[in-house]
Write a structure and sequence with these properties.
By secondary structure, the protein is of the alpha+beta class. The chain is built from 44 helices and 14 strands.
């Protein structure tokens, strides 16, 4: 509800941001969720209260905020913008779809040692970077630490300092708001010492670590004054008395950080960080004891079932003499921390130089790294990745404005040093050190025949150092699936260098994974990246080319044609070749699996088994990448024997993303498949959280015939919302999906009223299932034929099976005559498609005349390679014709393939598969198919009841219990 503050803030923001709602109040601010208009992304706007803003100089506040805005670190939430107007002061930050550390402590009290150690290490790393830039946080507390993809992100960085420096008069504490929070303030900070430095943040780190492990702060009291007094005078209870499993070294580190005197603490956050080495545990956590058990069970299943999700050790595997791995560099100067992972990105691309030499993917390296720049760690990394060569190094400050890099090339087989290198340069030209090192390594290896071509220096594809730095920051967030933060940095890189191909590609993928893969803006970014593909490493160049082909398929208007098929096969060939060359590259295997999933239905060699195996390979190589789990879940959801496997994929996805935003639909799907009751509140919540996510859930859940009919109920709820007063009408695509979900449960008349007469697959399917209100099939066929526009899909083709079943020879005669009058198009691919379509029309015309022999001959001669919209029903029609002639094995080979169909005809395919499987003696497959029919259409309209009766009789004949043949979902809990 609008308030005077909201109205004033919106007026001050203008059109740049649209306020959505208030999230709550911070320690020194009001917090609002908003949408940034230019990038259509969610942001958080924090507004200072009037009583504080009145005492702050707006100009000085803005200058101090600018200092914090230049802090660029993976574990610091950046300040995107700041402003002032009409007495309001505000600043803008990315919206993090996670929870705060405070929320987690409230639900769990004590954190696992591994999780607490990781949070401490990451927050200390962020502080070390900021302290090196002269910025002290002053308000470290669980509320200011956000957990994004399981990693810590520090918010409100330097805001307290900004307020202090911007004060026009006396100290800010005179306002009564205080700088800091009593429970986390160092003694010198609480006593009002003017010389508060970085060691106050170290003290707060000690308090934070104590609370995460012990389950309560080191000091508590009935009032803020009592807590402050305890910090000044009392000693905390030994941590190991409250948490015996705390490692002694960690307890000692926290105790030293909590020293009363700043001189007795660590001198810097960097020293504290180096004492706290994270225990590498899987990122992400369950939300409850039950969820934790599910995740644990999933891990066991991942390791035990058919080798799925097993990370196979490389021990004992022959090392590849032409494969080089770059270890993350040790960075001894906190101001240069970007290059810890940044050197992996640069050197891996530089040294993937063509010829026989190849480099291990940076994401593969970073995911599993926990060592230091020493021979032992480097050889272990080489053995894990199968690389015979390992490059490691150290970067440190050398004088006021200089930096030195020491690097070593190691032969992993024997731990032998092959070469040592040392370079120096100005501190703002670290990237040049990577170029110099690349050339030196290449020269050394060229003498052995491993490197045939000189390295491509600056192989990220930009000569702008600021753009490169922004990209590397974005890449670090991208690897952690932090889409908002990565998009912000990629946008910055593009603004600095509009020809930066990799930044355009990554920005497109980040937006696609945040919203949808077909997002037009994301597709355009990927196409532009392909057009700018110049001067990159062989791996990056190949991936960009394949990705631009994939994007062109998304962008192509109208029906698929021969050109589409050619592009698809070219994409497959490129990615399959890349997968052979870079066998352990998770990104390549994911991109290949994704291409198979979206475009592989017409290729006889691309089976569901191959798709799942390729996705599983990507997961094995990089189990932390959330997107790899979605399509496998959707694939297994279509197979009644794989529902448990589908749940494992969905749970794994949720463990890495949480349940907010786009992920909310995954939570609903997982709950349904896990046989949990889904009440109307849950349905309303997923629609409220994201209508797009609701549509996605609706599309996928229609394949699962649960007794609660969640997909149909979800669709009806969306329809009801659209019919409320003042609500915008549903777009056609939403109405089609809702109608499809309702029709999939056999409610054909209700679905017909939702679908209307808009050309769509579901409108055609309904007429194949039974008589529906509205025009006849022939009338609708005439309308769709007459009203079709150039470039649109030829929807009328979907009605051919219905016209053939109705014996409508007149419509076919008219269509054949009209097709004969069309000129041959100049485009060879379009001409070939039209030729095939005419042949298929003739086959259906034969069916309408009752000549099934001729129809089958034509269908078999055409083959499946280039079937366009006809692929939807043509395989089913062909299989039925084959089965009618007793050719059950041939029919089974067609029905067992993956075709581009959805909606109610899924049940027709299941029925035909069951019939054929029963005749072939495949009892389990027959039971699966008949069970799906009986469950999906259990409450279907009268026209479909004979089919349900057939399925149940078959189940009894096969000795299966029709009422318990498939997992079912309990009836929903009624709303009070």
């Amino acid at each position: 509800m609008p308030t005077p503050l909201v109205d004033s803030l919106q007026a001050a923001l203008g059109d740049a941001y649209r306020i959505e709602r208030e999230l709550g109040a911070g320690g020194m601010s009001r917090v609002f969720l908003a949408t940034e208009a230019s990038l259509n992304r969610a942001v958080v706007i924090k507004v200072l209260p009037a009583e504080l803003a009145n005492e702050v100089s707006a100009a000085r506040f803005k200058r101090e905020i600018e200092v914090t805005a230049h802090l660029q670190h993976p574990h610091i939430l950046p300040v995107l913008a700041a402003g002032s107007r009409d007495g309001l002061l505000w600043y803008v930050m990315p919206y993090v779809e996670g929870e705060s550390l405070r929320h987690r402590l409230a639900s769990e009290r004590q954190l696992p040692v591994a999780d607490a150690t990781r949070v401490l290490h990451e927050v200390a790393d962020a502080l070390a970077y900021a302290h090196s830039r002269g910025v002290v946080h002053r308000d470290i507390k669980p509320e200011n630490i956000l957990l994004e993809q399981g990693h810590a992100v520090l918010a409100d960085f330097g805001i307290a300092r900004a307020l202090l420096e911007a004060r026009t008069g006396e100290r800010l504490t005179a306002t009564g708001l205080g700088l800091g929070t009593p429970g986390y303030m160092a003694p010198e900070q609480a006593s009002g010492d003017a010389q508060v430095d970085a060691r106050a943040d170290v003290y707060a780190l000690g308090v934070l670590g104590y609370e995460m492990l012990a389950g309560l702060p080191p000091f508590t009291g009935p009032s803020a004054q009592a807590v402050i007094a305890a910090h000044l005078t009392a000693a905390p209870r030994p941590l190991r008395e409250l948490r015996p499993d705390t490692p002694p070294a960690l307890a000692a580190t926290i105790a030293r950080a909590l020293a009363k005197s700043p001189d007795d603490r660590f001198r810097s956050a960097a020293e504290f960080r180096d004492e706290v080495r994270p225990v590498h545990a899987p990122v992400g956590r369950a939300r409850s004891r039950t969820a934790a058990m599910l995740v644990a069970a999933a891990v066991v299943l991942f390791a035990g079932v058919a080798g799925t999700f097993v990370y196979r050790t490389r021990a004992g595997r022959p090392l590849d003499a032409d494969l080089l791995v770059v270890a993350p560099f040790d960075v001894l100067d906190p101001s240069l921390q970007l290059w810890h992972e940044g050197m992996v990105d640069l050197l891996s691309r530089n040294l993937d130089a063509g010829g026989s030499l190849r480099a291990v993917s940076p994401s593969t390296v970073v995911r599993g790294w926990s060592g230091r720049a020493d021979t032992e760690s480097a050889t272990a990394l080489g053995r894990r990745t199968g690389a015979r060569l390992a490059l490691m190094g150290t970067i440190l400050g050398s004088g006021r404005d200089s930096v030195r890099m020491d690097a070593t090339l190691v032969d992993v087989a024997g731990g032998r040093t092959l070469g040592q290198f040392q370079f120096g340069d100005a501190s703002d030209h670290v990237a040049r050190l990577a170029d110099s090192l690349s050339v030196a390594v290449w020269r050394l290896l060229s003498r052995t025949g491993r490197a045939d071509l000189p390295p491509r220096v600056a192989s990220l594809g930009t000569t702008s150092l600021p753009a490169m730095k922004a990209f590397l920051r974005g890449e670090q967030f991208f690897r952690r699936s932090a889409w908002d933060s990565s998009m912000a940095y990629f946008a910055q890189a593009i603004a600095l260098d509009t020809g930066f191909a990799l930044a355009h590609q990554r920005a497109g993928h980040a937006l696609g994974w945040k919203t949808s893969e077909g997002n037009p803006t994301a597709v355009r970014s990927r196409l532009l990246a392909g057009a700018l593909n110049r001067g990159l490493s062989p791996r990056d160049s190949l991936l960009l080319l394949a990705d631009s082909l994939d994007a062109s398929l998304d962008a192509a208007p109208g029906p698929p044609d021969i050109a589409t098929t050619v592009r698809t096969r070219r994409e497959f060939e490129m990615l399959e070749g890349a997968a052979r060359r870079y066998g352990d590259d998770a990104e390549i295997h994911y991109q290949l699996a994704d291409a198979y999933y979206h475009s592989g239905y017409a290729e006889t060699s691309v089976t569901p088994v191959l798709m799942l195996a390729t996705f599983d390979r990507a997961i094995t190589l990089d189990s932390a990448f959330a997107a790899s789990y979605l399509h496998p879940a959707e694939l297994t959801l279509r197979d009644p024997r794989d529902l448990k496997r589908a749940v494992r994929y969905l749970r794994a996805y949720l463990a890495r993303t949480g349940t907010t935003g786009r992920s909310s639909y995954v939570g609903v799907m997982a709950a349904v498949l896990d046989r949990q009751a889904i009440d109307d509140r849950a349905i309303d919540s997923v629609i409220t959280a994201s209508p797009v996510a609701a549509l996605r859930a609706l599309s996928d859940l229609q394949y699962f015939p649960d007794t609660a009919e969640v997909a149909a109920r979800l669709g009806r709820a969306m329809l009801a919302r659209s019919q409320a007063a003042g609500a915008p009408p549903l777009p056609d695509v939403a109405r089609r999906r809702i109608a499809s979900a309702i029709a999939s449960r056999g409610h054909i008349r209700e679905a017909a009223s939702v679908a209307g007469e808009i050309p769509s697959t579901v409108a055609a399917d309904l007429r194949l299932l039974g008589r529906v209100p509205g025009p006849s099939s022939a009338e609708l066929f005439d309308r769709w034929t007459r009203d079709g526009q150039p470039g649109e899909a030829p929807w009328f083709l979907l009605l051919l099976p219905t016209l053939a079943a109705e014996g409508d020879t007149a419509s076919f005669a008219r269509l054949i005559r009209q097709a004969g009058e069309l000129p041959t198009p100049p485009d060879a691919s379009v001409a070939d498609w039209m030729r095939r379509a005419r042949i298929a029309v003739g086959a259906y015309a034969s069916l309408a005349r009752g000549d099934t022999t001729e129809a089958l001959r034509v269908f078999e001669s055409l083959g499946p390679e280039r079937c366009v919209l006809l692929c939807r029903l043509e395989p089913l029609v062909t299989a039925r014709l084959l089965a009618a002639r007793g050719r059950f094995a041939a029919a089974d080979s067609i029905l067992s393939r993956r075709w581009p169909y959805d909606g109610p005809i899924t049940v027709l395919y299941a029925l035909e598969r069951a019939r054929v499987s029963e005749r072939l003696g495949k009892r389990a497959e027959a039971i699966d198919g008949y069970s799906l029919v009986a469950d999906a259409w259990a409450t279907a309209d009268a026209e479909l009841r004979p089919v349900v009766t057939e399925a149940r009789e078959a189940l009894r004949r096969l000795g299966a219990d029709a009422s318990a043949s498939r997992p079912v979902t309990p009836a929903p809990t009624p709303r009070p």
